[in-house]
Amino acid sequence: MERIKVFLVDRQVLFLQGMRMALSAEDGIEVVGESDKYEEVPSLIETFSPDVVLMDACLPSLRGLDIARQITQRSPGVPVIILTPYEDDDQLFLAIKSGAAAYLSKSITTEELASAIRRVFEGEHPISESFLTKPRVASRVLKQFQDLSLIGKGVEALVAPLSPREIEILGHVADGNSNKQIAHNLKISEQTIKNHITSILRKLDANDRTHAVVLALRHGWISME
């Protein structure tokens, strides 16, 4: 059975120890490293090559969100789960901008955390679900991405418009489905889904799946309903 390699980041050493003990008892999950020094994290991620990073938002400075952004830029294949003492729309907005795959309260159970880790490992982005159910956050994100500096060359520089199949797949992504779930729903191979996702990100010049959903919403290709 493939084990999901997890790297833990939190400024509180006691919380790090608790997470390590709790997750180590979960089948299929292995804690490969941890740190309470945020400035070291991006380079440590490259050294340990984890499958998932679990990171404290580090309030009130939100240092964790800054580091999450660095990780998604330097190690784009490593999803980041943000943990926070409390959830609010402002933090969710910043977590989306950082490229995080999930945004969770520290009050969740070990079982819920393990489930989130497995979902993210499978390619799901639970943060998309949070985004789509928060109209105020959705509005802010859509407005933010009007700034072309945040989307590289901009939507106007698309290589080609999305195909009907790619739009269909992006709709499934917006619903929080993993590549495996989309493949099952559409009755095509998971590799084909991965190929389509790669094509979508390239055509939209998108940083990640959530960014692609935002851009598709802007253009009306998919809806929040």
Structure description:
The chain is of the alpha/beta class and 225 residues long. The chain has two domains: 4-121, Response regulator (Rossmann fold); 135-218, Orthogonal Bundle (Arc Repressor Mutant, subunit A). The chain is 51% helix and 12% strand. It is built from eleven helices and five strands, in the order E-H-E-H-E-H-E-H-E-H-H-H-H-H-H-H. It has helices spanning 13-24, 41-48, 63-74, 89-98, 110-121, 126-132, 135-144, 164-174, 179-186, 190-204, 209-218; strands at 4-9, 29-35, 52-56, 80-84, 102-105. A five-stranded parallel sheet has the order 2-1-3-4-5, sandwiched between helices. Helix 1 (13-24) links the parallel strand 1 and strand 2. Helix 2 crosses helix 3 (63-74), helix 3 runs parallel beside helix 4 (89-98) and helix 4 (89-98) crosses helix 7. The longest helix is centred in the C-terminal third of the chain and has 15 residues, at 190-204. The protein is globular, with a radius of gyration of 17 Å. The chain starts with a strand and ends in a 7-residue tail after the last helix. The relative contact order is 0.11.
Summarize the helices and strands and which ones pair or pack.
Blueprint: E1 4-9, H1 13-24, E2 29-35, H2 41-48, E3 52-56, H3 63-74, E4 80-84, H4 89-98, E5 102-105, H5 110-121, H6 126-132, H7 135-144, H8 164-174, H9 179-186, H10 190-204, H11 209-218
Parallel strand pairs: 1-2, 1-3, 3-4, 4-5
